[in-house]
UniProtKB/TrEMBL annotation:
This is Uncharacterized protein. Residues 23-50 form a coiled coil. Residues 1-21 form the signal peptide. WD repeats lie at residues 100-132, 142-174, 184-216, 233-258, 268-300, 310-342, 352-392, 393-425, 435-467, 477-509, 519-551, 561-593, 603-635, 645-676. Keywords: Coiled coil, Repeat, Signal, WD repeat. InterPro entries: Quinoprotein_ADH-like_sf, WD40/YVTN_repeat-like_dom_sf, WD40_PAC1, WD40_repeat_dom_sf, WD40_rpt. Transmembrane segments: none annotated. It comes from the Bacteria.
Length: 736
C-alpha cells in the first residue's frame, strides 16, 4: 500500500513539475513574443518616423516649410530621429502659413473682408467660398457661376461679395450665402476682374473682350463703358474716394480713368510686357502694377515722375497690392512665391514659399499683419509682421554688419554698409535714430555702458563716438591706416578699443583726447577687439588665424590662442573674464581659457564661415552667426545640440544676447536686423509651439502621396492632427 501511495505521489510530483516547466516555457515564450512584438512595433515606429523625416526633407524647408512642419510635428516619440529638432526649428522660422484653405481645384483669387475675420476665394471649380480667416469651420459656399471664377471681393461693409467669371458675368452675392445673386450681364467674353466702389453703389469690371464697364451694384440701368477696347483688361479697381478707376491691360499700359467716364485716362507706360494687375495706394496718390515682364512698379497716380521698380521675381507677376498703411507691397508670381516689399523699393523683400505652382493673387489683411495668397488647390494665410519667432527691424539700404542691445535692453544699434548706424526701439515702435557721417560702410556699432553714447567703426578708417539720441556732432577717432572693423567701450566707458585691417588695435580715450595706445603683433588685419569685464585686458581676433590676449595698457607680451584654421573673425570674453569665445572662417567657434591654458572646446555644426560669437550674460550659452544663413545657440561647455535660428536666405553677420539673456539680435546681408524672442529648444513633436504655428493638417490625398499611407491610415492621421491642433489652440486661448 505504501509503495502504491509513494508511486502515485511521485507521479503527481512529476506531473506537477512537468506542468510547471510547461508553464515556465509558455511564460518565457509569451515574454519573448511580447518582446518581439514590441521590437517590431518600435521598428515600425522608427520606419514611419524615417519616412516622415525623408518626406519633410524632400518637401524642402525653403520650398514648403508649412508642409515640412506639418510632417515633422507628427513624428512619434520617444527617441525621435537625430536632427529632428534642427529641421523643426528651421521650418518654424521659415514663414510658415498660419492657415491653409484646401480647395478641390485651382484657387485663382483670395481677399479679406473689411474686418479681417473672413476670406473669400474664387476657384476654377466655378464656386466661391467664404472662410473664417483662421481656417476653422466650414466655408459658406456660393454656387451659380457656370465657368471658373476669376476674382472675388467684399463690399466695404462686408455684407456683399462681387465675383467675376469666365462665364461672362459679374455676380453680387450676400456674403452669408442667403438669397439670390444679382447677375450683371453685358461682357462678350470672360470677366477677369470686378470690384466695388467705396460706397458700394457701383461695380467696375474688366474682361477678355477688352472693355471696362461700370455698373449699378443693384443691377439696375445700363453699364457705362470706359473708353475704347485696349486689349485684354486683366484687373480693375476704384480709388479710395471712388472718383477714379485704374485698369491693367495686355497692351502693357495701366490707365487711370475718371470714374464718371469724363476726360481722357492718364497712361502709365514703362512695362515691357502685358500687365496683370493695378491697384491704388490707400491715400490714392500711388498705383502699383504687376506685369509679365517680372517687375512690379510703384507710380505716382497722376502720372508724374519715374516709377519705383521692384525686381526679384523670376517669372511673370500676376498681382500686386499695397498694405493698409501704404508702406509695403505684396506681389504674387508665376515663380511660385509671394514677396512683401518696402514700397519705397529699399531693402530686401520677405519671400513666402510653399505653393506648388504659380501664385495668382496676394492681398494684405486690413491690419497689415497677414497676407492671403491663392494658388494650386489652396489659399494660404501668412503672418508678415515679424511677430512670430522674431521681430524685424527694417530700414537699412544695404547689408547690416552688426547689431547690439543697449545696457537696459530697450534699444538696439545697428551698423550697415549703407554708411549709417541706426538706433531702434527694441519693440519695433517708432522711427530709428539715424547716425550719418561716415564716408564708407559702417562695420560695427556698440553702446557705452551707460547707454548714452555709441561708438561706430567704418571702412573710412575712422571710429566715431555719438550721442545715442543723435544730437550733437560725433567725436572722431582717426589714426588707423586702413578700414576699422570694430570698436567697443571699456566697462567704465572711458576708453575705446578699435581693430583695423592695418594689423593693429588701438586703445583711445573715449573723449578723443591724448594719443592712443598701439597694440601691434598680429601678422594680418585685426577683425575685432573687446575689453575684459574688469577692463584690464583686451582680446583681439585676426586674419593670421589667432586671437591675442593683451594687457589693456599695452605692457607685456600678449597670450596667443592658436588652433583655428582660417581667419578669426571675432573674439569676446565671458562675463566672469575667465573664458574667451572666438569665431572663425574655418566654420567653428571655440571656447578657450583666457589664460591660454588647456584645450579649447570646439563648437562644430555650421556649414560655412562663422562671423561672430558671443556669450550669454550668465556665461552658460554662446550664440554664433554664420554665412550658412543660421544663428546657433550652444551650451558653452559644448554639451548637447545647438538651437538653430533660421529666417532667410542671407548670411548672418553678427548675433548678440540681450542683457537679460532672453532675446538675441542678429544682423544679416538681407539688410535686416531681427530680434528673436523664442530661444527655448523644442521639447519633442508635441511641443505646443509646433501645433499653434499653423492650423494646417495634410489632407488624406497628400498623406497618401508624401507618407505612403493607406487611405485608412491617412484618414486616421488627419483626424488626429485636427484634434491636436484644436487642443493646442484651446490651451493657447486659456493661457491668454
Amino acid at each position: 500500500m505504501l509503495v502504491a501511495i509513494s508511486a502515485v505521489a511521485a507521479a503527481v510530483l512529476l506531473l506537477a513539475m512537468k506542468a510547471h516547466q510547461e508553464k515556465t516555457r509558455a511564460n518565457w515564450e509569451a515574454a519573448r513574443a511580447s518582446q518581439e512584438a514590441a521590437r517590431a512595433q518600435d521598428e515600425a515606429r522608427q520606419a514611419r518616423n524615417a519616412t516622415r523625416m525623408a518626406a519633410a526633407a524632400a518637401r524642402g524647408l525653403r520650398a514648403d516649410p508649412t508642409t515640412a512642419l506639418a510632417i515633422l510635428r507628427e513624428l512619434e516619440p520617444p527617441d525621435v530621429l537625430r536632427g529632428w529638432d534642427d529641421l523643426a526649428r528651421r521650418a518654424l522660422n521659415s514663414f510658415v502659413a498660419r492657415a491653409v484653405l484646401n480647395h478641390p481645384d485651382l484657387v485663382l483669387y483670395a481677399s479679406y473682408s473689411p474686418d479681417g475675420t473672413r476670406i473669400v476665394t474664387a476657384c476654377a471649380d466655378e464656386v466661391v467660398r467664404v472662410w473664417n480667416a483662421d481656417g476653422t469651420g466650414e466655408p459658406v459656399v456660393l454656387r451659380g457661376h457656370e465657368d471658373r471664377v476669376s476674382s472675388a471681393a467684399f463690399s466695404r461693409d462686408g455684407k456683399r461679395i462681387v465675383t467675376a467669371s469666365n462665364d461672362k458675368t459679374v455676380r453680387i452675392w450676400n456674403a452669408d450665402g442667403t438669397g439670390e445673386p444679382v447677375v450683371l450681364r453685358g461682357h462678350k467674353d470672360g470677366v477677369t476682374s470686378a470690384a466695388f466702389s467705396p460706397d458700394g453703389k457701383r461695380v467696375v469690371s474688366g474682361s477678355y473682350d477688352g472693355t471696362v464697364r461700370v455698373w449699378s451694384a443693384d443691377g439696375t440701368g445700363e453699364s457705362m463703358l470706359l473708353g475704347r477696347k485696349v486689349g485684354v483688361i486683366h484687373s480693375t479697381a476704384f480709388s479710395r474716394d471712388g472718383k477714379r478707376i485704374v485698369t491693367a491691360s495686355s497692351d502693357k499700359i495701366a490707365r487711370v480713368w475718371n470714374a464718371d467716364g469724363s476726360g481722357a485716362p492718364i497712361l502709365l507706360r514703362g512695362h515691357k510686357d502685358k500687365l496683370y494687375s493695378a491697384a491704388f495706394s490707400p491715400d490714392g496718390k500711388r498705383i502699383v502694377t504687376a506685369s509679365k515682364d517680372r517687375t512690379a512698379r510703384v507710380w505716382n497716380a497722376d502720372g508724374t515722375g519715374t516709377p519705383i521698380v521692384l525686381r526679384g521675381h523670376k517669372k511673370a507677376i500676376y498681382s500686386a497690392a499695397f498694405s493698409p498703411d501704404g508702406d509695403r507691397v505684396v506681389t504674387a508670381s508665376h515663380d511660385g512665391t509671394a514677396r512683401v516689399w518696402d514700397a519705397s523699393g529699399k531693402g530686401t523683400p520677405i519671400v513666402l514659399r510653399g505653393h506648388d505652382v504659380s501664385i495668382s493673387s496676394a492681398a494684405f489683411s486690413p491690419d497689415g499683419k497677414h497676407v492671403v495668397t491663392a494658388s494650386d488647390r489652396t489659399a494660404r494665410v501668412w503672418s508678415v509682421d515679424g511677430m512670430n519667432e522674431f521681430r524685424i527691424l527694417r530700414g537699412h539700404a544695404d547689408r547690416v554688419c552688426s547689431a547690439a542691445f543697449s545696457p537696459d535692453g530697450k534699444r538696439i544699434v545697428t551698423a550697415s554698409y549703407d554708411k549709417t548706424a541706426r538706433v531702434w526701439n527694441t519693440d519695433g515702435t517708432g522711427a530709428p535714430t539715424l547716425l550719418r557721417g561716415h564716408g564708407d560702410a559702417v562695420c560695427s556699432a556698440a553702446f557705452s555702458p551707460d547707454g548714452k553714447r555709441i561708438v561706430t567703426a567704418s571702412y573710412d578708417k575712422a571710429a566715431r563716438v555719438w550721442n545715442a539720441d543723435g544730437t550733437g556732432a560725433p567725436t572722431l577717432l582717426r589714426g588707423h591706416r586702413d578700414a576699422v572693423y570694430s570698436a567697443a567701450f571699456s566697462p567704465d566707458g572711458k576708453r575705446i578699443v578699435t581693430a583695423s585691417v592695418d594689423g593693429t588695435a588701438r586703445v583711445w580715450n573715449a573723449d578723443g583726447t591724448g594719443t592712443p595706445i598701439l597694440l601691434r603683433g598680429h601678422k594680418e588685419g585685426v577683425s575685432s577687439a573687446a575689453f575684459s569685464p574688469d577692463g584690464r585686458r583686451i582680446v583681439t581676433a585676426s586674419g593670421d588665424r589667432t586671437a591675442l590676449v593683451w594687457n589693456a595698457d599695452g605692457t607685456g607680451t600678449p597670450i596667443p590662442l592658436r588652433g583655428h584654421e582660417s581667419w578669426v573673425t571675432s573674439a569676446a570674453f565671458s562675463p566672469d573674464g575667465k573664458r574667451i569665445v572666438t569665431a572663425s572662417w574655418d566654420g567653428t567657434a571655440r571656447v578657450w581659457n583666457a589664460d591660454g591654458t588647456g584645450t579649447p572646446i570646439i563648437l562644430r555644426g555650421h556649414e560655412n564661415w562663422v562671423n561672430s560669437a558671443a556669450f550669454s550674460p550668465d556665461g552658460k550659452r554662446v550664440v554664433t552667426a554664420s554665412r550658412d544663413m543660421t544663428t546657433r545657440v550652444w551650451n558653452a561647455d559644448g554639451t548637447g545640440e545647438p538651437a538653430v535660428l533660421l529666417a532667410s536666405d542671407a548670411a548672418v553677420n553678427s548675433a548678440a544676447f540681450s542683457p537679460d539673456g532672453k532675446r538675441i539680435v542678429t544682423a544679416s546681408d538681407d539688410e535686416l536686423a531681427r530680434v528673436w524672442t523664442d530661444l527655448e529648444p523644442l521639447r519633442d513633436p508635441g511641443d505646443p509651439k509646433l501645433w499653434t504655428a499653423t492650423t494646417y493638417c495634410m489632407p488624406v490625398a497628400r498623406r497618401m502621396e508624401l507618407l505612403r499611407n493607406s487611405k485608412a491610415t491617412a484618414q486616421s492621421g488627419l483626424a488626429d492632427c485636427q484634434r491636436r491642433v484644436e487642443a493646442a489652440r484651446a490651451a493657447s486661448r486659456e493661457q491668454r
